[in-house]
Write a structure and sequence with these properties.
alpha+beta, five-stranded antiparallel beta sheet
Length: 770
């Protein structure tokens, strides 16, 4: 035993401390879980009690309200009876004493109403002041000579209240008639209903609600022995009470101010915890009454003791299992050292040798620790490179699942939860970027990525990557979808670039998205927007969300008249050309068509000019095609294109002006050339116009002015000349010859040939042979 103790003494302290740490941790966790579960259970239980009682209390309130609602409807029906019967109306509002028939009719009517509502109505009364008659389903018809004494004796107008913005009176009364005695709450109204002048009052209608109806409602509401519920009025009087009446009166005595506040507020104060009870309240259907419910939580907590004991047993089980697992884990963790110590003891090394062995183990552990620290340092130094590769992989869709995204973010230490993401593309103006030397370019790009990599904000995160060619892409994430965070980032970055480099960056912003694996799709949409930058030269911020409606409803074409442009080139109308180009630039900036169409339109302008120079003005010193399109590639936006193109056209026109006086002559020569080269074709005016890139009307007009004949006549003339030449120089059969010169009808050819040469084609060939 002593030997075993000495064997373990070298590492026993660490071993025991490790076990103790695990035990303490497990016990703390178990106790913490137990306390949290108990507290959470209690809080949730109380909350559920309050919610349930409020729901039940609202149900009780609706039942009480229904009593007053039905009573009020009875009052309205009786008062409106006079509107339906003129004789009864006279009886209610005018003196008609001793008219027993009308009084009996009214009594029969209110008896019918009382029978229909027998479940809660004791009786119904009607008093008409003009006739001093009191009609009641309880006492019958009675006449009274002294109005004031009679009303005081009845005690109907004890407490004035407000019901649905009308005055009503409520009072507690004991009605007696013979041996019968009824305890009721009288709900009364004077008529006419809305009169404020006492002298205009004609009488009153009262509905006597059975007192025990309220007690029955409260009794049905009570479900536990220690609970109590009461209806009270503003004077603090208890209208009805059921349940633990002793406990409720104790509550009234000890918490009088609180109860007064609840009553004064009409039962809208909410819920209160008072000792072992929860007090809830609701209005009772009329202004002066409040329902107060006292719920004892003692029974609830007695019921939870079993649950608390189960939690305690669970905690003890977790502690025992945790101790066992801790022991086994620590034992396996230190098993190599245990084997080494046993081996050293068996080999009977000297004390110095054993100490060297222990020293080697310590050195190995220290070396592993140093290497781990070194790896962490290397990771930290290359963090931006890893981050850049991660962003590039997102942009190129090489990362396609969320788990891989989470793993990369954890490696970079950026695994905080963010709900919204945006893609930002930051570009330097190409003109500025190309004017910089290599060193300055690298410095600018480095500072752009440095700004985003070090952007500090607890509510946001930036992941950036250099895409070369003066472009940086940023994946910006925020906790909440708040556009203000984006605006702050853009403003700070723009100010940073202006202050340090006097440069205005161009920023393109995508719409928001919720998952990082969607970066590729949003980046692709932004790349399409980049093509529009050429046509909006003075814009430095493009928001995809703002352009979405425009870009999604693009037109197929623009209103560009290329034929007018070609005619303006031929006629050298520089003013017309300037108007066409300016209109194109203005409409292009509105982004009503696709970027591909706009680029195609620019190239078509250049193509028409190039065709004009090559085929019509070929004798001038024009640029070759390669140089022309190279110059276009060096332009940065549509404004540069406009100034370059206008200068090119002006220079061309100046050169041509020095070479010739009549520009239309060359156009006519080109038309003749097209006709001569295509005689065998079925030539039409549209075909020739398409070849010279001018409108049919235009070429027809200038040809007629220049040659004195129309194009059709000239084509016929050329075909006949070629036919005459072939008749002499070839042995082609006549039918084949006619097709070769472009005539579709042999009769038409012979007719035209004879008109020109006064003989037939056969005679013309025969004469040439002889």
């Amino acid at each position: 035993m002593k030997k075993r103790f000495n064997c373990l003494s070298r590492f026993d302290t660490i071993f025991n401390r490790l076990i103790l740490s695990f035990v303490v941790l497990v016990v703390a966790v178990a106790l913490f879980i137990g306390i949290i579960l108990t507290v959470q259970f209690s809080v949730n239980y109380n909350k559920k009690i309050e919610e349930l009682e409020n729901y039940r209390l609202r149900y009780l309130k609706n039942n009480v309200e229904a009593l007053f609602k039905d009573s009020n409807q009875i009052i309205l029906d009786i008062i409106n009876l006079g509107n339906q019967n003129e004789d009864i109306q006279k009886y209610l509002y005018y003196p008609m004493e001793k008219d027993m028939l009308k009084a009996v009719n009214i009594l029969d009517f209110i008896k019918v109403i009382r029978t229909q509502k027998d479940s809660f109505i004791s009786s119904i009364e009607l008093y008409t002041e003009k006739n001093n008659v009191h009609i009641s389903t309880f006492t019958g018809i009675n006449f009274s000579s002294y109005r004031e004494d009679f009303l005081k004796e009845q005690g109907v107008f004890h407490t004035e209240t407000n019901y649905q913005n009308s005055k009503r009176w409520i009072s507690h009364r004991v009605l007696t008639f013979g041996n019968r005695e009824h305890r009721v709450y009288t709900f009364a109204a004077k008529y006419p209903l809305y009169t404020e002048n006492p002298s205009m009052v004609k009488g009153y209608v009262a509905v006597n609600i059975k007192e025990d109806v309220f007690y029955r409602l409260l009794k049905d509401f009570i479900t536990r022995e220690l609970d109590a519920v009461a209806i009270m009025n503003r004077q603090g009087e208890i209208i009805a009470i059921e349940g633990n009446t002793e406990g409720f009166h104790t509550l009234l005595k000890n918490k009088k101010e609180l109860i007064d506040d609840i009553i004064a507020d009409g039962g809208r104060k909410g819920n209160y915890r008072i000792g072992d009870s929860v007090v809830t309240s609701q209005s009772a259907g009329i202004e002066d009454w409040v329902i107060i419910n006292m719920v004892s939580t003692k029974e609830y907590f007695d019921e939870t003791r079993k649950i608390q004991m189960n939690i305690l047993y669970f905690s003890c089980t977790v502690i025992v299992v945790g101790i066992l697992i801790s022991y086994l884990f620590a034992r396996n963790l230190y098993r190599p050292f245990y084997l080494i110590i046993n081996r050293l003891d068996r080999m009977k090394f000297s004390k110095k040798a054993r100490e060297s062995e222990y020293y080697y183990i310590d050195r190995a552990i220290e070396e592993l620790y140093d290497r781990a620290i070194e790896k962490e340092a290397v990771l930290y130094e290359n963090r931006n490179i890893i981050k850049r590769d991660f962003v590039l992989n997102l942009l190129s869709a090489k990362i396609t699942n969320e788990k891989e995204v989470d793993d990369k973010l954890t490696l970079l230490g950026c695994n905080l939860s963010f709900n919204s993401h945006y893609v930002l593309i930051i570009k330097l103006h190409q003109k500025i970027y190309n004017s910089l030397d290599e060193l300055t370019r690298n410095l600018l790009i480095y500072n752009m990525t440095y700004f985003f990599d070090n952007y500090s904000n607890s509510e946001a995160r930036c992941l950036s990557a250099d895409l070369f060619d003066g472009t940086v892409c940023v994946v910006f994430s925020i906790r909440e979808d708040d556009k203000r965070e984006l605006a702050v980032l853009r403003n700070k970055f723009t100010d940073y670039m202006k202050i340090n480099f006097s440069v205005d960056p161009i920023i393109l912003q995508s719409i928001g998205f919720t998952k990082l694996i969607e970066v590729h799709r949003n980046y692709q949409r932004l790349e399409k927007l980049i093509d529009y930058l050429y046509f909006i030269p003075h814009v430095y911020f493009l928001n995809e969300e703002e352009l979405k409606s425009k870009v999604s409803n693009l037109k197929e074409t623009m209103n560009i008249d290329f034929e007018v442009f070609s005619e303006a080139l031929v006629s050298r109308n520089i003013g017309q050309i300037d108007i066409i180009l300016k209109n194109f630039i203005t409409e292009a900036a509105e982004l009503t068509v696709s970027a591909e169409y706009l680029n195609g339109a620019v190239l078509k302008f250049v193509f028409l000019y190039n065709h004009f120079m090559r085929d019509i003005m070929k004798e001038s010193k024009n640029k070759n095609d390669t140089q022309l399109f190279k110059d276009i590639n060096d332009l940065y936006n549509v404004e540069d294109f406009y100034f370059w193109f206008m200068k090119l056209i002006e220079t061309t026109f100046e050169e041509l002006s020095s070479l010739e006086e009549n520009p239309t002559k060359t156009v006519v020569q080109l038309i003749e050339k097209v006709i001569m080269e295509n005689l065998e074709e079925n030539l039409s005016l549209e075909f020739i116009a398409e070849k010279v890139f001018l409108s049919p009307k235009y070429i027809s007009r200038i040809f007629k002015e220049e040659r004195g004949m129309n194009i059709t006549q000239f084509m016929t003339e050329c075909k006949l000349k070629k036919a005459a030449k072939l008749l002499v120089e070839s042995n082609l059969p006549l039918e084949e010859l006619i097709k070769q010169v472009g005539f579709s009808s042999s009769n038409y050819f012979i007719k035209k040939f004879k008109e020109k040469y006064s003989i037939t084609p056969v005679q013309y060939r025969r004469n040439s042979i002889t």
